[in-house]
């Protein structure tokens, strides 16, 4: 289990292929910072976590879309993430800013601001 206590949420969207919530986070608020992917699955045990992040994003005026391009946040939002490490394979799975095949999946993302 990994805990990323101070990251910045840069991108968030609902993946239409697997219905997971996909997030890109970085270690700084810079929009050019290297990112990693976090995923919250559609499985019932993550329903509360999905509802929580949806409500938190809505409070910032952000509605999750199933369109990748519309998921980029206008500015980064501080967040906290807890999840399991997962080594994915090389495929089109995120923005050009994603710099690692490692993800946290499943992950619970909570905004801290």
Question: How would you briefly describe this protein structure?
Answer:
The protein is mainly beta and 113 residues long. Helix content is 12%, strand content 49%. The protein has one domain.
Can you walk through the features of this model?
By secondary structure, the protein is mainly beta. The protein has one domain (2-111). The chain has one helix and five strands. The chain has one helix at residues 47-59; strands at residues 2-14, 21-26, 35-40, 72-87, 98-111. Strands 1-2-3-5-4 form a five-stranded mixed beta barrel. A hairpin with a 6-residue loop joins β1 (2-14) and β2 (21-26). The longest helix is centred in the middle third of the chain and has 13 residues, at 47-59. It is globular.
Task: Reconstruct the topology from this structure.
Elements: E1 2-14, E2 21-26, E3 35-40, H1 47-59, E4 72-87, E5 98-111
Parallel strand pairs: 3-5
Antiparallel strand pairs: 1-2, 1-4, 2-3, 4-5
**Largest β sheet strand count, sense and barrel closure:** 5 strands, mixed, barrel
Q: Helix and strand string, N-terminal first?
A: EEEHEE
Query: What is the structural class?
Result: mainly beta
Name the average pLDDT: 94
Spatial strand arrangement across the major sheet: 1-2-3-5-4
Q: Low-confidence parts lasting 5 or more residues at pLDDT below 50?
A: none
Q: What is the share of helical residues?
A: 10-25%
- The total tally of domains equals 1
Based on DSSP secondary structure assignment, what is the total number of beta strands?
Answer: 5
Taken as a percent bin, the fraction of beta residues is: over 45%
Distance between the termini: 23 Å
- Total of helices: 1
Radius of gyration: 12 Å
Dominant shape: globular
């Amino acid at each position: 289990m990994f805990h990323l206590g101070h990251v910045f949420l840069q991108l968030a969207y609902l993946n239409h292929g697997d219905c997971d919530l996909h997030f890109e986070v970085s270690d700084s608020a810079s929009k050019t910072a290297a990112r990693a992917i976090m995923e919250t699955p559609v499985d019932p045990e993550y329903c509360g976590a999905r509802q929580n992040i949806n409500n938190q994003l809505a409070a910032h005026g952000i509605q999750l879309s199933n369109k990748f391009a519309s998921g980029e946040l206008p500015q980064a939002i501080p967040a906290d993430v807890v999840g399991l490490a997962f080594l994915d394979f090389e495929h089109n799975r995120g923005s050009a800013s994603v710099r690692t095949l490692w993800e946290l999946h499943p992950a619970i993302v909570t905004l801290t601001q």
